[in-house]
């Protein structure tokens, strides 16, 4: 694997290999007083985040450090980007400085792909940590890892993705990845928060509905999405209260779920609007597990990019 730019590029075998590696790394760290493996010793991982992030940035940094890589964080405000340097020149500079892997989050869809193109003739790998409204492949992988952990498998499971699908790179990556792993997906959203090109995603069997209550009794998992107000220009729904009434996961709605069903959210959560606090903090919730699994999944991604071929040779 040269880069990880999109979940759509992962077939079932490739995704399962990453998930199995994540499980192996998790078990390798169990019982260790110091969470440290020598796997990436001597490697340099650079994170470039042009948008705010807590979970993704921190988990990539921890993942690199737990594998003994040297991790360097670059932000737009503290780099030459603030002086007007282009993304291309910044990327080439970091590669020339010795970056083995560049992890990028950027507000422009396609930014990670452009970066990979500019670094094509170098030895630097690129990971997409979220590009605009396009994709967030490692989030989809950690969601899949959490579903495997809580449900025992993904193939044949029915999963609802609920909320602001229009602006969600998390939704797009999960639709592609979970479908590849055999899940049956239903997207639940108000008409104004559905992407106009949903049919062009090319996902067979993807259902779309506006009735959340009708879907909850038959799903194995419900994935709530963040309402991305920072990407909205204009009114997409009347008010936060009306959104919550129609599409928020309340305690009443949680009771509609089958006993085994699990609740996910990529965070940060808008408690009381997208999800009730009683639901987010309930035993059904796997939100904290998603964060924990995110570290192991991102360790696995770095392993497959930087070390897997060496281990096979």
What does this protein structure show overall?
It comes from Labedaea rhizosphaerae. Catalyzes the condensation of carbamoyl phosphate and aspartate to form carbamoyl aspartate and inorganic phosphate, the committed step in the de novo pyrimidine nucleotide biosynthesis pathway. Its EC number is 2.1.3.2. GO terms for molecular function: amino acid binding; aspartate carbamoyltransferase activity. Belongs to the aspartate/ornithine carbamoyltransferase superfamily. ATCase family. The chain has 313 residues and is of the alpha/beta class. Helix 1 packs across helix 5 and helix 1 packs across helix 11. It starts with 11 loop residues before the first helix and ends with a helix. It folds into two domains: 152 residues, Rossmann fold, CATH 3.40.50; 150 residues, Aspartate/ornithine carbamoyltransferase (Rossmann fold, 3-Layer(aba) Sandwich). The relative contact order is 0.16. The strands form two sheets. The protein has a five-stranded parallel beta sheet with strand order 7-6-5-8-9, covered by helices on one side. Helix 6 links the parallel strand 5 and strand 6.
| Domains, number | 2
Q: Could you estimate the helical fraction of the residues in percent?
A: 25-40%
Q: Order of strands across the biggest sheet?
A: 7-6-5-8-9
Which strand-content bin applies to the residues?
5-15%
Can you say what the CATH homologous superfamily of the largest domain is? Answer: Aspartate/ornithine carbamoyltransferase
Tally of strands: 9
């Amino acid at each position: 694997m040269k880069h990880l730019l999109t979940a759509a590029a992962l077939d079932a075998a490739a995704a399962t290999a990453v998930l199995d590696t994540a499980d192996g790394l998790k078990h390798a760290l169990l019982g260790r007083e110091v969470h440290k493996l020598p796997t990436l010793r001597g490697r340099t991982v650079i994170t470039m985040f042009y948008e705010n992030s807590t979970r993704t940035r921190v988990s990539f940094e921890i993942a690199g450090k737990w594998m003994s890589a040297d991790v360097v964080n670059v932000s737009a405000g503290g780099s030459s980007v603030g002086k007007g340097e282009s993304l291309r020149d910044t990327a080439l500079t970091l590669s020339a400085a010795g970056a083995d892997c560049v992890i990028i989050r950027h507000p422009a869809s396609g930014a990670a792909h452009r970066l990979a193109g500019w670094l094509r003739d170098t030895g630097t790998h690129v990971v997409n940590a979220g590009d605009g409204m396009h994709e967030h492949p490692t989030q989809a992988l950690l969601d899949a890892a959490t579903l495997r952990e809580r449900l025992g498998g993904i193939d044949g499971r029915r999963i609802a993705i609920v909320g602001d699908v229009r602006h969600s790179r998390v939704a797009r990556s999960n639709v592609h990845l979970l479908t590849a792993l055999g899940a049956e997906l239903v997207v639940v959203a108000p008409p104004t928060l559905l992407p106009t090109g949903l049919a062009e995603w090319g996902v067979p069997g993807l259902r779309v509905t506006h009735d959340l209550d009708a879907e909850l009794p038959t799903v194995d998992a419900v994935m709530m999405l963040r309402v991305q107000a920072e990407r909205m220009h204009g009114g997409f729904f009347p008010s936060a209260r009306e959104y919550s009434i129609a599409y928020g996961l309340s305690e009443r709605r949680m009771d509609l779920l089958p006993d085994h069903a699990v609740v996910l959210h990529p965070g940060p959560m808008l408690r009381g609007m997208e999800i009730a606090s009683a639901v987010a903090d309930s035993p059904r919730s796997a939100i904290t597990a998603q964060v924990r699994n995110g570290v192991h999944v991102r360790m696995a991604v770095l392993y497959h990019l930087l070390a897997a071929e060496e281990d096979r040779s």
